[in-house]
Amino acid sequence: MFVVGTAGHVDHGKSTLVQALTGIDPDRLQEEKDRGMTIDLGFAWLQLPGGNEVSIVDVPGHERFVNNMLAGVGGIDLALLVVAADESVMPQTREHLAILDLLQIPRGLVALTKTDLVEDDWLELVTADVEEVLESTKLEGSQIIPVSAMTGDGLPELIAAIESMLTETNPKKDVARPRLPIDRSFTITGFGTVVTGTLVDGSLEVGQEVELAVSGRTTRIRGLQTHRQKEEMAEPGTRVAANLIGVPHEEIHRGEVLTIPGWLRPTTAFDVHLRVIPDAPQSLRHNMFVTVHTGSSEAIARLRLLEGDRVEPGQTTWAQLKLETPLAVAKSDYFVIRSNLTTLGGGNIVDTHARRPRRNHLPTIERLETMEKGSDREILLKTIEMSEPSGFVDIVNRANLNPDMAKDELSGMGCEGLVVTLGNGAIRNGTRFYTSGGWTALGMRVRNALASYHEQFPLRPGSPKEELRSRINLTPQDFNDALPLLNEGGVTVESGSLVRLPDHKPSLSDTQEGSVTGYLKLLDSDPFSPPTDSPIDPEVLSLLDEQGRVVKVSETVVFSATAYQQMVGKISSHIRDEGEITVADVRDLLGTSRKYALALMDHMDHQRITRRVGDARVLR
Ligand code: GDP
């Protein structure tokens, strides 16, 4: 199904024409009826002669309500520009036309209304005027159809033209992520909250769990309607009314976006390709404040120009919009910027969650160019590069690609070595990716971090994993997934809870070797009751223990390796002969004190050489 949107100067006959075409008065508000003027969006629908229905969004033409016009015009397939034959082209004719052009509305028709008020030769002049303003816009060469809502002249021709244009229109894209930018929220007695909008990017179903992306609230769809007909499912490109469960209508504002949960994160800064309209009254300056309109939403934003400090009417540039209030937008959405009630320009969103930009920086511009125009593959790579490692859902959202397509593309890229996939098995929502460049860079970071750890602690066999993780600043999950791949790639060697560089060997300096010799001599001076207050660096002692040159049986008791082996031998053969041994037996057997005997036996239990039975030990 398709949506037609009106456009044109106030009082040029838009609402009257919609009513004449559809029989529905699009001016819903009492104030509109009282003032005889459209203030907000109006909605109607038309059954075409071929049987298809088409939705119509009627917009206000008054310059004070261009913001409302903007909230309705997003998502339309065909623009119906209405120009009154008696007044011809007026300021909002031009402004609305510029907006249609900025939003890249693909098709248009011009209805030259009120023909009952003018002579034929005047009509020719007005037609020429209209042709001229359409020049060099997307609507250039559009059909111009003279009509009168009063007499009905030209209405059948207009309907036929609408029908023929829509048969040539491609259905809205479906990326399986429905978005309903909400333009109205109200309550219906007995049903509760109803929101309306033009559905894009996917379909919605009754019963489905949904999220209001800006506020983050989740809810469920109780019912769906299109053109007052109940539907089980709404397809992209339709005007939809959705009845929501449990959210008061006053808490949902125009500009909120209804979507499936968990993907559309509101943003406060996005990068754009901006075109300043030739009619803009002034050049745009870096850091000026503007109002941004996109979908049905609007927000105040600071305009950051990425190339130079100024951009002139008619020029195009890369820019960032830093928003004062968050908006929920997707890549490739169109937007318009305005200031002081005048339209200045607009364009398309290229990076939805932009970082503070580097201005006048060629690589930034090149990245944005690829994000805008690159192949799916190039866009995926650039998207991952922006924050590595990137999760699948984030990548797909930021690149605004169909998830299944992105999955295929990424697994192909994995096989070709363009990306590194963390974790194993199929690509899931949580799967994270590095570009090959990003992965190499991570390897370097790991090498540097370990090298500096080894330099700082040359005696330690390796760094505790957690220490390395925090040095390279990865999340625990990313680290755990990356480590096996780093080991496989020969960057690291993991042993127990430690990780080291492959060529790292703890080693003692000459002075340390000297003190070790003295220390070992000291231990051997009384091998089974060695001194316990020995002045040796704890790091050196750990290394000796690690290397098997000493055995540290408790915090204070350390034996030389030979003494330890001898004692274990004596104790084992005693147990073999006697069946068991007590601490007192050990003390007597070794001619040592209870302190050493106790520490030794605890250690042997721990080593699973012996086992405690009552007061005695037996062999395991
Ligand atoms: P909108 O502001 O563009 O929606 O304009 P309206 O539909 O409210 O029309 C403005 C005025 O023009 C109303 O008084 C209409 O009755 C009148 N009007 C609209 N269409 C025609 C037409 O085809 N012929 C004549 N004579 N008057 C018209």
Descriptive tags:
single chain; alpha+beta; six-stranded antiparallel β-barrel; 18 helices
Spatial order of the strands in the main sheet? 2-3-1-4-5-6
* Helix/strand class: alpha+beta
Q: List segments where confidence is low: pLDDT < 50 over at least 5 consecutive residues.
A: none
- Approximate strand percentage: 25-35%
Largest sheet report: 6 strands, mixed
What is the alpha-carbon Rg in Å?
A: 38 Å
Note the total helix count: 18
Strand tally = 34
- Cα end-to-end separation: 80 Å
What are the distinct ligands in this entry?
guanosine-5'-diphosphate
The overall pLDDT, averaged over residues, is 93
Note down, in words, how this protein is organized.
The protein has 620 residues and is an alpha+beta fold. 35% of the residues lie in helices and 28% in strands. The protein has 18 helices and 34 strands. The chain has a six-stranded mixed sheet, with helices on both faces. A six-stranded antiparallel barrel has the order 7-8-14-11-10-15. Strands 16-21-19-18-22-23 form a six-stranded antiparallel β-barrel. Bound molecules: guanosine-5'-diphosphate (GDP).
